[in-house]
Write a structure and sequence with these properties.
By secondary structure, this protein is of the alpha/beta class. The chain has 14 helices and 13 strands. The strands form 3 sheets. A 7-stranded mixed beta sheet has the order 2-3-5-1-6-7-8, with helices on both faces. A 3-stranded mixed beta sheet has the order 4-10-9, with helices on both faces. The chain has a 3-stranded antiparallel beta sheet with strand order 12-11-13. The longest helix is centred in the middle third of the chain and has 32 residues. The protein starts with a strand and ends with a strand.
Length: 365
Amino acid sequence: MGFKCGIVGLPNVGKSTLFNALTQTAAAQAANYPFCTIEPNVGDVAMPEPRLEVLAKIAGSKEIIPTRMNFVDIAGLVRGASKGEGLGNQFLANIRETDAIAYVLRAFEDDDVTHVEDRVDPIADLETVETELMLADMESLEKRRGNLEKRAKTGDKEAKETLALIDLALAELTEGRPARKAEVPADQRKAWRMLQLLTSKPVLYIANVDEDSAATGNAHSQRVVEYAAEQGSDAVVISAKIESELALLEANERQDYLDALGLEEAGLDRLIHAGYNLLELQTYFTVGPKEARAWTFKHGWTAPRCAGVIHGDFEKGFIKAETIAYEDYVAHNGEAGAREAGKLRQEGKDYLVKDGDVLHFKFNV
């Protein structure tokens, strides 16, 4: 399954610099992982996964195939985008196609880089972007209402249910809150997603700081971190400029550069993991002499559903899953050792796959 995260922000906040760093990182991975730019503004990036390297070494796998993520560089938004200002219409259409939104917020001072509103205030920038998305959602919902009301009067059950969800969304939006704040009944969540509301998508916040603040942050980024905590979201502090430089280095040079800056890991790695966690995504592995491969699944998925990530026939004809926890696979030096130690389990249709499971599916179609 894919994961597509839209990178959103005002002009001149470092959004495209960050996206370029992501795509340069992906290009640097090309020696080991295939890289493609799907479109000029879409980067396909491998998920950093050190466990995959360990498994491949133990199994003697000829090829390593990581799971992947798409990042979409969405055209810079300006005030009035909800009414079509700037590239507003395209901007909003591109966001609708994403699974999550990463707000890039300017958290650096630089007289040489102008701000579209002549200030450095990351929270005000965020409010400008989110207001435009809320206005666009309100307009979209109001346009649908007339036809749904006509159908509801004829007794159309689906129309009545959709109207109730529209009212739920509008109750939040008219109070100046994004649609994701609405409490949606569990049995209505699929229909809620069908509304395709821009502000119902999960979000994370990226505070783009200057180079000197990459390790410790600054007053601007601290405001972003505090705001994210209040919203129950995550924030990542990154220097897009440093990341773009880091992406051009050889692998053996990157850690030295990070150490010199006082950073434990690249900001982009933290961003990718934050995006992964945002959607409650996890990873299982298939391992053999031909390839070691990572697969993405949602927390709480059963073994058959996870098998379907590989191929629909695996899910339809699922019989069982031979399962080894990552720690057991490593501790016993592979499948044979884990089997001998009694760590290989036979799991059925009700098994909830765990992050790090090494799986081999048995199926019949």
